């Protein structure tokens, strides 16, 4: 029985971007073959190493990239030995195309976030909150609210780290406040990312996939009907935790930090880039990544302007020289270099994404996703299946979970597609290891924000999870 449960969980999280039809009708069902069993074992081992990253310090991209190569080499060998020499290649190319679109999209977004970070945008916000001298309870709500509204534009990881820095700066030795505030930040950041196409990789995948439903396509504006359910997902546990937050007034400290020249204009360019991506998708029917890369050109030209005019930053006391030296590369003193920002992108995350797509694309090509789709979306029904997807995302990364659903393409209404978008986005809040924000904060607030500390408040978070599902089904009933 335990083996069957494990197999069910494993199959349910097998993502994949491979189309069965890519093999031109020669797709072989290898779900009961040793190739299929070996592929599952390789992927399971790789993912165990990913989950143990905190203890082994082995970057999560390494095992999945290796597993991807091994799985597809077995598939290619088996197909070639039976006279099919192009089917596996076609499937891999399809995987690579989908990965390339998402990777380049995320790379542009990360570059803008890094540029704003280098221009002290986030540091200025953090210092402003610190010097204001807010009380613990007020700061609890302010950091949660900011996390909720920043994460739809920036990624939830950057948002959570920024807000956690504020909490640590004012929390001092008050471990109870730090724990509760960190839990609140994780929940708020994940909830905020669920109602925006830019807020999380899972919502981005659904938007770029442009899923066809009986009510139409899940377009850019459609995601915002999840605003109220996402807000409920955060407010319910936050309201419960509020009474446990110490009602104390910490001393104000620190000094204000000014943003560097061009910071506000980079923020405007980022917003303009988002508008460009949406316009390319909605009006020109082009992939959003083309609009994002066009937006990267905005930053490149503005970076060129900053380089040519860096002397304006000099104030006569040497501060500009310090900044220029910090940003220099290969001995050239420059005020801004966009390629430095690209180099600072989360390459481990991007390569992990590649490994996941290729790994489970192979498993989908072997036939496992069709079995999972039958079990979850036909036998259980879409509502229960989508709730389970959210619960699974608390155990494993929500990226492979959502890839599984997108690849299976179950026949669902618009409301159900939005439901799985919501649950995959917020389900990771149930455990501290369920999202990138939670894992990062365990390292940033080591010893004060812990797995078991988060687990203690899991019932309150689960109540918010259930309430958000109920609210979505209620207020968006016309979409089901």
TrEMBL record:
Residues 1-20 form the signal peptide. The keyword RNA-binding does not apply. It is found in: Membrane. The keyword Repeat does not apply. It is a multi-pass membrane protein. GO terms for cellular component: membrane. GO terms for molecular function: antiporter activity. Residues 47-425 form the Citrate transporter-like domain. One of its GO terms (biological process) is sodium ion transport. The chain crosses the membrane at residues 32-52, 64-80, 100-117, 129-150, 156-172, 177-198, 218-245, 266-283, 289-306, 351-371, 383-405, 417-437, 457-475. NCBIfam families: NhaD_1. Belongs to the NhaD Na(+)/H(+) (TC 2.A.62) antiporter family. This is Sodium:proton antiporter. It comes from Sedimenticola thiotaurini.
């Amino acid at each position: 029985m335990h083996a069957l449960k494990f197999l069910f969980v494993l199959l349910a999280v097998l993502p994949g971007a491979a189309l069965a039809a890519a093999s031109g009708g020669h797709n072989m069902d290898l779900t009961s073959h040793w190739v299929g069993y070996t592929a599952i074992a390789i992927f399971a081992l790789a993912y165990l190493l990913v989950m143990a990253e905190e203890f082994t310090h082995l970057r999560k991209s390494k095992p999945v990239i290796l597993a991807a190569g091994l799985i597809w080499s077995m598939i290619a060998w088996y197909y070639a030995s039976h006279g099919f020499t192009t089917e596996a290649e076609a499937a891999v190319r399809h995987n690579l195309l989908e990965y390339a679109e998402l990777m380049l999209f995320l790379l542009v977004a990360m570059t803008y976030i890094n540029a704003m970070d280098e221009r002290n945008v986030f540091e200025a916000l953090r210092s402003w909150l610190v010097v204001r001298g807010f009380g613990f309870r007020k700061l609890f709500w302010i950091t949660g609210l900011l996390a909720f509204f920043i994460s739809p534009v920036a990624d939830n990881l950057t948002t959570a780290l920024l807000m956690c820095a504020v909490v640590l700066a004012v929390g001092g030795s008050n471990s109870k406040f730090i724990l509760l505030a960190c839990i609140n930040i994780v929940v708020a950041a994940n909830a905020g990312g669920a109602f925006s196409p830019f807020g999380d990789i899972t919502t981005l995948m659904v938007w770029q996939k442009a899923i066809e439903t009986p009510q139409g396509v899940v377009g850019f504006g459609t995601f915002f009907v999840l605003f109220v359910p996402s807000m409920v997902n955060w407010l319910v546990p936050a309201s419960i935790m509020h009474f446990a937050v110490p009602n104390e007034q910490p001393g104000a400290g620190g000094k204000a930090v000014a943003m560097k020249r061009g910071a506000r204009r980079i923020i405007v360019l980022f917003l303009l880039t988002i508008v460009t991506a949406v316009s390319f998708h909605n009006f020109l029917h082009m992939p959003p990544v083309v609009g994002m890369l066009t937006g990267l050109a905005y930053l490149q030209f503005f970076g060129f302007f900053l380089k040519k005019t860096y002397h304006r930053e000099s104030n006569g006391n040497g501060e500009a020289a310090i900044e220029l030296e910090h940003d220099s590369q290969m001995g050239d003193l420059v005020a801004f270099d966009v390629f430095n920002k690209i180099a600072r992108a989360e390459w481990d995350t991007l390569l992990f994404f590649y490994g996941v797509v290729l790994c489970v694309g192979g498993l989908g090509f072997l036939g496992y996703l069709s079995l999972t789709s039958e079990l979850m979306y036909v036998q259980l029904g879409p509502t229960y299946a989508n709730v389970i997807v959210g619960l699974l995302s608390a155990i494993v990364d929500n990226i492979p979970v959502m890839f599984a659903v997108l690849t299976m393409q179950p026949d669902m209404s618009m409301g159900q597609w939005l439901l799985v978008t919501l649950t995959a986005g917020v389900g990771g809040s149930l455990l501290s290891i369920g999202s990138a924000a939670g894992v990062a904060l365990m390292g940033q607030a080591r010893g004060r924000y812990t797995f078991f500390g988060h687990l203690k408040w899991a019932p309150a978070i689960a109540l918010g999870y259930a309430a958000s599902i109920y609210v979505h089904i209620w207020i968006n009933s016309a979409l089901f």
